[in-house]
Each structure stands twice: as C-alpha cells, then as structure tokens.
Amino acid sequence: MTSTQEAAGTGTELTARELESALLQRIILPRPADPTTVRALYLDEGTSTSLRSAAPTAERPGTVNEEQDEFVLHLTTAGGRRAEVLSRTSVRVPEHTETSFAAYFNAFPASYWRRWSVLDAVHLRLRVRGAGRVDVYRSTARGVPIHVHGEPVTSEGVLDVPVGLRPFEDGGWIWFDLSSGAEPLELLDGGWYADRAAPGRAAVTVGMPTFNRPSDCVNTLRALGEDPLVRDVLTAVVIPDQGTSKVRQQEGFDEAAALLGDRLRIIDQPNLGGSGGYSRIMYEALEHTDAEFILFMDDDVVLEPDSVLRALAFARFARTPMLVGGQMLSLQARSHLHAMGEVVDRHTFFWQLAPNTEDDHDFAVDSLRETLWMHRRTDVDYNAWWMCLIPRVVAEQVGQPLPLFIKWDDCEYGLRAGAHGFPTATVPGVAIWHMSFVEKDDSSDWQAYFHARNRLVVAALHGPDDPRAMLLDSLKRTLRHLFLLEYSAIALHQMAMRDFLSGPKALFGSLPTALGEVRAERSRHVDGTVHPSARDLPEPPIGALAAQLWPEPPQGRVAQVKALVGALRHQLRPTAPGAAERPQRNVPAEHGTWFLLSRLDGATVSTSDGTGVTFRRRDREEFWRLLRTSLGLHRQVQRSWPALRRRYRDGMGELVSREAWEAQVFSRYR
C-alpha cells in the first residue's frame, strides 16, 4: 500500500498469534436485538462531511465553499439505501453509496493512545470484497477533518493503512469511509492494530456485585460468554450476590453459566453495598486468581462485549500501570452518551463534568464529526465503577476500596490511585449502557445519607485544608432541599454529619447496618414515603388546574435574590388550612423546582422515574429547626476539620487493608 506523508512505517510482519495480541479495537456493528438508534454509535450515515484543504475529484464528488475554503463531500445513498449489517463484524455497502465509520464505537480515539500508550503508530487493517474505495481521515483537536489516505478496491483483499500518532497531542480521532461504485462493497472484518504484540498477559477477572437484579446479571454473563475473544481473556467472573432474588434461580442462568464454566464464581453475602461487593471482587481476584487485571462492572448494565477487549488492550499498552475507565451510555436513550468524563472540584469538593465537555450527547442527532468539542482529549480524576479496569499491581499497592457502602467509593479510589502515581483514563469506545441519573432521585431519597457522609470522608482524605468552600456549598444544598420540602433528605444529611464526626472506626461495622438505619430515619418524615400515584391522594382544590403555570427560573443575581427572599418569607407564614391533607398542586418531576415549591404549603411531586409521587408538606417549625441544626453541624465540622483529617488519614491504612476486610467482613460470610 502506498504510504502517505502522515503514514508510519509498516514494521515487521506479525504472525497470526501476534496479530491477535496486537488488536486494539475491532470494527463492530450493532447486534440484531439493538434498537434502531444504536446504529448511530457504530456507523455515521449522515449527509455530508467537511474537509478543509481538499478538492473534489471524479472519485470524490462534492462542491467547494470558497468563502470558507471548505470542500463539502456528499455521502450519497442511492435510493435512500443504507449499509446492510451482515454480522457483528461485517457490513455491505450498496452500490453508489458511501458509509462512514466516524462513529463512537468504530472511530479510533487516537489522542488517548498518543497520551497514554507506548505506541507511535497504529494500523488500520480491513478485509474487503467488491469494488469501491477506502478513505482514511483524521481530525485535529478542534475537530477539523484531514484526509490521510485513499485506496481503490477492485477485488477481495486486505488493506493495511499505517497512521502515525504524532499529530494527536491535544486531541483528534482517526476513521475511515467506504464508498462503492457500480457494485456493492463488503467489509468482511477489520480493526485497529498495534505494530507489535501487546506486553503482559491478556488475563482479567470480571466482577459484578448484584442486588436483586438477577435478569440483568444473567444477560451480562451471557454477553461475556458468547463472544470467543472475550471469553478467552477471562480468568474468572466473580458475582457477589447480595440480594434475596438470587442469580442462580434466574431463568437462563444455567445456559449463561455453561458458557463460562468453572470461571464463574458466585458468592452469597449480605447487602454490603457497592463497596462491599467490589472489595470482595478485588479480594477474590488477588487471593484466588493470577489475573493481571480486575474489571469492575455494575449489575444493571447492558454490556458492549468488545469494551472488555478494548480496555484490556489499552491497559496492556499503557506507558505505566493505570486505571482504564469505560464511559456510560444511557440505557433509556441508547444513542446518548452520559458524559465524557468527570473531575473533582478541589474547593467545593464535589464531582462535575470534565472541563470543555457536555453531558447527555445524542449521537443520533449530532455525529462525532459534527461534535467539535469531543475531538479534544478529556482528562479525568476518576472513572465510576459502572465499568473500570484496575491492574493487579495497582490493587496490590493502593489497597481495597473504602467501606463506604455506596457513593464516592469509586471516586476516592481514583484519587487515591492518582496520588500513588497511577492515573485514570476514560476511553471513548469503551462503554456500557446504564440507567441515566436523570431518571433517579438519589440526591434526595435514602441515598442522600451516603452522598453527604462519604463526601466528607473522602474530602478528609483527599480534600482541601480549608473546608469553608465545601461547607458553604453543602449549606446551599441544605437550603435547596428545605425549599423543596424534602425534610427527610436534611434529616439524613444531619445523620451523615454526626456519623462523620464520630470518626473512621465505625465504617466497617456500619456496612451491614447503615442501610436499615437510613431507611428507618427517612420513613419518619412524610416526604419519605412514595405513593403509587397522585390519584391515590386527595385532588387539589377546584381551580388549581387553571393555575398550573410553571414559573421560569429566576435569571440574574437580582432576580435570584428576590426569589430567595420571597421563599424565606413564605417559611415565616402559617401553613394554609387543609394543605397538610390536600395538596395544593400536583407537580410533575420536571417542574419540582425550589422557586415553585418554596411558595407552596403542600404538593405532590412525581419521582424522576415516573413510578410514583411524594406528598410534601410545609412545616414552619420543622423548617427552622432543621436549618438551625444544620448550621450548628456545619460549624462543628469546620471547627473539627484539622483533627478529623488527621483521624481519617491515620486510619486509612486499616480501612483499605486486605487483611482488615478479611477479618472484619469477609470471614463472617463464607
């Protein structure tokens, strides 16, 4: 194949076994059961792509926009036809049609490999049949596409296009387009390869803690076992089953288990939360397998099996041992990417989107080529444990997860690993589908306790010397919950702060008991009960529907201060007669805002997932009592912060010790 200016040398020929080890990323297509919108994650079948510094030819019809010095290439689809997916790895492009693989799962995230791997170049290898053309492109960090190489196809054969990684310091992807002529063009299989075999062993223990999601768990086991390439890298699959609805009893389990054979290990233990489950997986992997890597996954996911192979390849070619994170696609809207990555604000000590990224991106609306910000490399502090690969050497040196039950355990581990010199990369194209947090109320339901307590614990270990910015942010959140009439959430926050103030020694003991105590506390408050529907409660007064106008958010500082003052004034007034028995309004979840609910005395508010409602009632005395108590606890945390940081940091070694987990937790549940 003819080299281009940006092509790298082909190097020595690899044997078949070495080539398999050199595979970085297979070209993959949707599964038959996948919804239609998922196709946008694998193929870009849009109408055009922009190529600067290019020109139209007979083989590449298009038009020139002279004002912008831009050539617009037309992706033609004869008669509206699209590529025909033949299998997971093969596709047929109809005659006179162009299909681009500039899509989330098939474009190559070159800048991540440039930043973190030992590779200087990659090879695109395609086995094709028919007549047409293959064109390879790369993008800059600003999203500008550049044509790298073009190759005509006249018969069946293997194309090998080497591309150097030097231009990808700050960002950029590589992809290819297939265009057919008078007859169809088939991609039989293909992938992105290294020029050498991967170092180390392809050996991974996959673990999923599960709690009463046996059907989801069985589906993931089947996905792991059905693909031979994925199955071959599995040393063990460990399932800490912490629920009452057992995985072994689920329909389809026997068939899924047969695919994995003796590699599948199910461990029954009480509900010790995510951290108790993940810590058990790490413990079992270190004690009872020789796996080089440990892959954490949630149980309520839909797995793209190739993500296991991609994460493993990335980790094996990494310059130094590092955590490799998978990104989260939305289970409800399957073409949506939840986030490119997350960091921790070191002042307020709360997680947030990584700089220069956006959340909830829909590839079915805006393709990778059209999403310019996505071409910059995104660096992160940690990756959530919906999917995260941890090298064995990291687990041995950094230790076990903290005993936090749920929330912040994954974030803390990423921060701790980073402090030990083991960074985290969140890699595009390595992903699972998981329920979006837009459909959850986890900041205000029983999980509010773990959000608040564990944030403080992790901040004591890794956070600022001065906690004032963090505590001010916490107070703002307190006031917001009070205006939302979520008194149960504030009660849980206060419980969390008291438990944090008591120190680190109670963390292990609280693993099996914290959830019950939290649920009991929440049930003491009216808003802690979820009713099946607003129709099960008294209807709002006649005329309330006519007033169903939803206020717009206050814009600007003056409007926000006025709204805040008005909300506080309302808390001084007596509650309207009858509002405690009959809601004044039925409020949809999307309109359950503080600037509306702070003016009401009683309202039903739908849950985010639409399965029920809470009846929230304003209580003037309770509002001010909770606010006073919260202020006092925040002052106490601020005064005690230096001493608390020492206590938690001094106790860290015990909390993450494999021996401590064995003695205090696992030895009780054999």
From TrEMBL:
Stored InterPro entries: GlfT2_C (IPR045699), GlfT2_N (IPR040492), Nucleotide-diphossugar_trans (IPR029044)
Residue ranges of domain Galactofuranosyltransferase-2 C-terminal in the record: 470-667
Keyword line: Glycosyltransferase, Transferase
Lineage of source species: Bacteria, Bacillati, Actinomycetota, Actinomycetes, Pseudonocardiales
Family according to the record: Belongs to the glycosyltransferase 2 family.
GO molecular function: glycosyltransferase activity
Enzyme class per UniProt: transferase
Family annotation (Gene3D superfamilies): 3.90.550.60
SUPFAM superfamilies (alphabetical): Nucleotide-diphospho-sugar transferases (SSF53448)
Annotated EC: 2.4.-.-
Protein name: Glycosyltransferase
Record pathway: Cell wall biogenesis; cell wall polysaccharide biosynthesis
Limits of the Galactofuranosyltransferase GlfT2 N-terminal domain: 79-195
Keyword Lipid metabolism applies: no
